[in-house]
Amino acid sequence: MLAVLAIYPVTVVLGLSNTIGYHRLLTHRSFKTATWLRVALTFLSAQYSGAPMQWIGAHRVHHTLSDTEGDPHTPAKGFWYAHAGWLCGTRNPLLCVLFAVSGFGLQVRIAIVDVLRLAGRRPPIWRAMTRDLEKERFMCLLDLPLVMTACFAAQVAIAWLIGGWAGIEWLWFVHLFLNNATWIVNSACHSNGVGERPHATRDQSRNVAWLALLTHGESNHNAHHKYPRSARHGLDGELDASWAIIRVLARIGLATDVQLPAPHPVKPPLPQSLPENA
After folding, report:
1. Rounded to an integer, what distance in angstroms lies between the CA atom of residue 232 and that of residue 247?
2. What is the pLDDT of residues 186-216, one digit of tens each?
């Protein structure tokens, strides 16, 4: 029972490490924070999202070429391709679903990519979009081949030592839940007929209110594409747990230079006004 109860706080903390850390802090530079917190958020998110520069590089390309053929998870190739097919290299809905429910499928992909890198067959092209992160030793360390695979192997070993097969099942569910909570933003929040589009953008991004709790506010996606650098995605009062945490961090001095659109000020600190579609 204790293991089941632990799933909730673990998935919340790890999920927020991605939405606040990988996404709003590292990818869009929506705020600044202390080095120790930046490292902690990065390390936690890496445990299921993979190396930060690979994740951030793909996401920056997504914003640059959103909903076009150049978008890594373009919805033009179908809902399931945008959800998981772009990671396993197929548009076949059944194979995409199988990958999505595999739990550890992303970790297998990470290992395969790293082996191909070591063989000289997969150059780290994502680094073209992450020159700013190359200045940080910790980011470069996590981007080395097989480092993330070693982290996953450590997770499996710890889960086995604690609970045997039950521990492995617990770890599988955590990965399954967290990965799909991330991927659903790529699929559902770019699908016609789902959610709302209160802001005019050059893509088909949408706000999907019923996913806000699951995604910690990331499903306020149309607002995010309107103001990509904004630390707040729920601009009109929508549920946005990630912003709530960032706001607390700002109050206690751990989040500075918080970026928000001009009509949505926060104190302290005073945010900078952002241009639309920055």
Report:
1. 9
2. 999 999 989 999 999 999 999 999 999 999 9
Is the sign of the CA dihedral 88, 92, 94, 96 positive or negative?
Answer: positive
Res 217 pLDDT > 80: yes
How large a percentage of the chain has pLDDT more than 90?
A: 92
**Domain chopping of the chain, boundaries:** 2-199
- Residue whose token pair is 């990818």: 27
- Tell me the pairing of strands 255-256 and 32-33: antiparallel
Over range 213-233, report the average pLDDT: 98
Cα dihedral across residues 148, 153, 158, 164: positive or negative: positive
Token pair in block for residue 127: 């680094």
Q: Which residue type is seen at 79? A: F
Q: How many CB atoms lie within 10 A of CB 35?
A: 9
Whether omega for the bond prior to residue 269 falls within 30 degrees of 0, making it cis, is yes
pTM: 0.92
Distance CA 57, CA 125 (A): 9
pLDDT tens per residue, range 37-52: 999 999 999 999 999 9
DSSP string, the chain: -HHHHHHHHHHHHHHHIIIIIIIIIIIS---EE-HHHHHHHHHHHHHHH--HHHHHHHHHHHHHSTTSTTSTT-GGG-HHIIIIIHHHT---HHHHHHHHTSSSHHHHHHHHHHHHHHTTSS--GGGGG-TTGGG-HHHHHHTSTTHHHHHHHHHHHHHHHHHHHHHHHHHHHHHHHHHHHHHHHHHGGGSTTSSB--S--SS---B-GGGHHHHTTTTBHHHHHHSTT-S-S-TTS---HHHHHHHHHHHTTSEES-B--TTS--SSSPPBP--TT-
